[in-house]
């Protein structure tokens, strides 16, 4: 049997578990005229969830990762390129009659896809507005879904773009927008701050980790194929280490499976896999660690030992210093706040812990 665990890319089918409630909520939302804002730390499963929700909806879907564009014109061109994947040019050219700047098209012989570009000097905002209005028009027959991943990048793309975008989007009726973001603080600034143009623009959903019972069942069922007697213990050990983080749980389970397949030894197998993976990343962790300042290292060491909270006043560091370090580390994605602050990557936590021994 092939390794039944998968990490790093979008998961679906047998690799996807739980999220029943979230799928239902997204389904209902897409039936309405509302938009969705989905926030979670990195690799919690936002993209997988949205892809699954959109799999059978029979509506035109366009998905853009804002990290992959550097200018507003590039964003407009990429949207247009995605539209051409859904509709043949001949069918929609009449709907583009309103375009104030004419894009150029070329067939990419490597991919057979169409490349789109706007002439330099085209007005950024107008170009984007024209493309969004094309989507609105095409959505008359069958409503569009536009997914904007890493939406917080919009703030750095161009000053005032958020205001402009919102002014166009609020007039559209034939599009559901789904905004995804993993920089929680920035997404909150955009959708939760009263003075932001996107204040309460969509329904906010925070994606949590996968609930313990579901993940436990998911792991046990699969390990039962290879070590029926120990599958429950292995699942328990894995989840104890990963604390149900979707990505790291799959990564560790993948490694454990590989070891079991090769050696079929089960004693301390999870610990063994943890050591292997921690060592595998040694070089990266070292580099990250060396680039950090002393305060951040100190905070991470406390979290890795997790005996007390770094905000504990008995520590030698002022609470305000600890707090700003935690905020900084959260922004960079090293620390996430669940009920308490924790290190996002459990292998990094183990690596830091090992150093402090
Ligand atoms: N529902 C799920 N069931 C099982 N594993 C999952 C699920 N969702 C996510 N994962 C695991 O987490 C990994 C990351 O998922 P995904 O890429 O969807 O997350 P993301 O939040 O979009 O990440 P990023 O922040 O990198 O964009 C997957 O490759 C998979 O290993
Ligand atoms: Mg993603």
UniProtKB/TrEMBL annotation:
Which InterPro entries does UniProt cross-reference here? Answer: ATPase_dom (IPR011579), P-loop_NTPase (IPR027417)
One example of the protein's molecular function in GO is: ATP binding
Ranges for the ATPase domain?
16-195
* Keyword tags: ATP-binding, Nucleotide-binding
Q: Does the keyword Phosphoprotein apply?
A: no
Q: Which domain of life is it from?
A: Bacteria
- Quote the protein name from its UniProt record: ATP-binding protein
Task: Read off the lineage from the record.
Answer: Bacteria, Pseudomonadati, Bacteroidota, Bacteroidia, Bacteroidales
């Amino acid at each position: 049997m092939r390794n039944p665990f998968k990490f790093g890319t979008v998961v679906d089918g047998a690799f996807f578990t739980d999220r029943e409630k979230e799928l239902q909520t997204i389904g209902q939302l897409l039936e309405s005229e509302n938009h969705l804002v989905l926030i979670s730390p990195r690799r919690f499963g936002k993209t997988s969830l949205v892809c699954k929700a959109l799999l059978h909806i029979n509506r035109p879907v366009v998905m853009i990762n804002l990290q992959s564009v550097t200018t507003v014109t590039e964003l407009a061109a990429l949207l247009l390129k995605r539209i051409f994947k859904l509709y043949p040019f001949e069918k929609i050219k009449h709907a583009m009659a309103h375009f104030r700047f004419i894009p150029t098209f070329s067939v990419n012989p490597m991919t057979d896809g169409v490349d789109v570009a706007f002439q330099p000097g085209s007005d950024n905002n107008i170009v984007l507005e024209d493309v969004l209005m094309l989507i609105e028009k095409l959505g008359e027959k069958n409503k569009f879904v536009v997914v904007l991943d890493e939406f917080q990048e919009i703030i750095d793309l161009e000053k005032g773009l958020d205001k402009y975008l919102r002014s166009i989007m609020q007039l559209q009726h034939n599009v559901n927008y789904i905004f995804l973001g993993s920089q929680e603080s920035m997404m909150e600034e955009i959708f939760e701050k009263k003075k932001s143009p996107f204040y309460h623009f969509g329904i906010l959903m925070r994606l949590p980790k996968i609930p313990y019972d579901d993940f436990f069942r998911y792991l046990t069922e699969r390990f039962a194929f290879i070590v029926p007697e120990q599958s429950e213990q292995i699942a328990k050990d894995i989840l104890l280490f990963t604390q149900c983080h979707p990505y790291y749980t799959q990564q560790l389970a993948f490694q454990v499976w590989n070891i079991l397949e090769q050696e079929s030894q089960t004693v301390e197998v999870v610990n063994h896999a943890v050591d292997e993976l921690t060592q595998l990343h040694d070089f990266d962790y070292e580099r990250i660690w060396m680039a950090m300042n002393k305060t951040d290292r100190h905070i991470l060491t406390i979290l890795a030992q997790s005996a007390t909270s770094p905000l504990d006043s008995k520590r030698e560091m002022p609470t305000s210093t600890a707090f700003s370090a935690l905020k900084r580390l959260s922004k960079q994605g090293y620390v996430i706040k669940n009920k308490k602050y924790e290190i996002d990557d459990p292998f990094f936590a183990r690596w830091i812990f090992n150093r402090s021994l």
